[in-house]
């Protein structure tokens, strides 16, 4: 009788353990209120709700759980479960993802989203999986502009010799080298102080990042270069994700996509609204003639086509098809 009681107690204990709540973390580098942050909170809410509290996700705003590059490493090690990461940082482990930032490839967010949601996005996700990373969804961060503290940028020559902060992304570095600037890779969390102390002259980011992180306070000139698109790959650790039940994996995948729809909606809306808000804050905007910028950055395509000929051609073709729809 005692043996039966012990066995029964063990079974109850095992069942309780298997049903115990699991707590994970999601990292990102954006400030509170940024669409990346709002969507991350939505993801955590959906996962908790749909697992009836068995899985909870803590959101690490503003690099609380590590900057983007650190988070990519931690994702691969399995020490963090999720990250609404950055294209540039992820390209350190998955170079193919950087190709989404080829210069002047996309003219609209809708065009970029159509490409990411298609076969090209699937190929990049397959490359990421080989590195221990699942891309569960494609969020976005907008089209990138160039800001600086001294003057409007009207032509590539205006960038000559300027120290422009870039993410640690080889393609962004290549773009600004081709334009004659001196690209200076730096973590986003360090950027405001670097601009304030004039360690660098300028930077490039979507308006959403410029506004939410208040970079406009130390960068009164924004040139609408629209030089590249910035995806937000929603990453999951293969080690962590594979340890979950198929049912929980499905819940998490769907939550990532649904939260991504909120992210995309917010990015589109804010991309339109922020021009006015930034002008009210004292920013001077200027448009640029894209032709000389496009011409100056053609060598970037040549370089990356030499490394990934099929994928670059497929990406360019997909972008043209999406633009035509």
Percent of residues in beta strands: 15-25%
Q: What is the rounded Rg?
A: 22 Å
Look at the helices and sheets and give the structural class: alpha/beta
Q: Helical amount among residues, as a percent range?
A: 40-55%
Looking at how many chains there are and whether they match, the oligomeric state comes to: single chain
Q: How many strands appear in the DSSP assignment?
A: 9
Summarize the structure.
The protein has helices spanning 2-18, 35-50, 68-77, 87-90, 109-116, 119-129, 170-178, 191-196, 207-212, 238-242, 246-280, 290-296, 298-307, 309-324; strands at residues 22-27, 55-60, 82-84, 133-148, 163-166, 182-185, 202-206, 221-237, 284-287.
Overview features:
325 residues, transport, alpha/beta, TRAP_DctP, DctP_fam, single chain
Describe the structure.
This protein has 325 residues and is an alpha/beta fold. Helices cover 49% and strands 20% of the residues. It has 14 helices and 9 strands. Strands 1, 2, 3, 4, 5, 6, 7, 8 and 9 form a 9-stranded mixed beta sheet that branches. Helix 2 runs antiparallel to helix 11, helix 5 packs across helix 14 (309-324) and helix 7 (170-178) packs antiparallel against helix 13 (298-307). It is globular, with a radius of gyration of 22 Å. The N and C termini lie far apart (73 Å). This is TRAP transporter substrate-binding protein. It comes from Mycoplana rhizolycopersici.
List the SSEs and their pairings:
Blueprint: H1 2-18, E1 22-27, H2 35-50, E2 55-60, H3 68-77, E3 82-84, H4 87-90, H5 109-116, H6 119-129, E4 133-148, E5 163-166, H7 170-178, E6 182-185, H8 191-196, E7 202-206, H9 207-212, E8 221-237, H10 238-242, H11 246-280, E9 284-287, H12 290-296, H13 298-307, H14 309-324
Parallel strand pairs: 1-2, 1-3, 5-6, 5-7, 8-9
Antiparallel strand pairs: 3-8, 4-7, 4-8
Helix pairs in contact: 2-11, 5-14, 7-13, 13-14
């Amino acid at each position: 009788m005692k043996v039966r009681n012990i066995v029964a107690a063990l079974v109850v204990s095992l069942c309780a353990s298997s049903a115990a709540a699991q707590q994970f973390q999601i990292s990102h580098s954006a400030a509170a209120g940024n669409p990346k942050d709002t969507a991350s909170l939505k993801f955590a809410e959906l996962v908790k709700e749909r697992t009836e509290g068995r899985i909870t996700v803590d959101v690490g705003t503003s690099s609380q759980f590590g900057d983007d590059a650190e988070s990519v490493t931690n994702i691969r090690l399995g020490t963090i479960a999720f990250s609404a990461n950055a294209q540039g940082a992820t390209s350190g482990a998955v170079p193919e993802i950087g190709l989404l930032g080829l210069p002047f490839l996309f003219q609209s967010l809708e065009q970029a989203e159509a490409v990411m949601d298609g076969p090209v996005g699937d190929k990049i996700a397959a490359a990421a999986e080989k590195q221990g990373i699942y891309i569960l969804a494609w969020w976005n961060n907008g089209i990138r502009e160039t800001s600086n503290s001294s003057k409007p940028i009207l032509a590539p020559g205006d960038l000559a010799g300027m120290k422009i902060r870039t993410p640690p992304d080889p393609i962004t570095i290549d773009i600004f080298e081709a334009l004659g600037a001196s690209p200076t890779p730096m973590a986003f969390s360090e950027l405001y102080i670097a601009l304030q102390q004039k360690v660098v002259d300028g930077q490039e980011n979507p308006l959403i990042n410029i506004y939410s992180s208040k970079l406009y306070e130390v960068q009164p000139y924004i040139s609408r270069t629209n030089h590249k698109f910035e995806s937000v790959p929603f990453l999951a650790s293969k080690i962590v994700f594979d340890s979950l039940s198929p049912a929980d994996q499905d819940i998490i995948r769907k939550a990532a996509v649904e939260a991504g729809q909120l992210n995309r909606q917010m990015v589109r809306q804010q991309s339109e609204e922020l021009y006015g808000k930034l002008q009210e804050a004292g920013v001077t905007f200027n448009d640029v003639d894209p032709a000389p910028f496009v011409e100056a950055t053609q060598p970037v395509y040549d370089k990356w086509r030499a490394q990934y000929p099929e994928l670059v051609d497929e990406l360019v073709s997909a972008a043209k098809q999406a633009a035509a729809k």
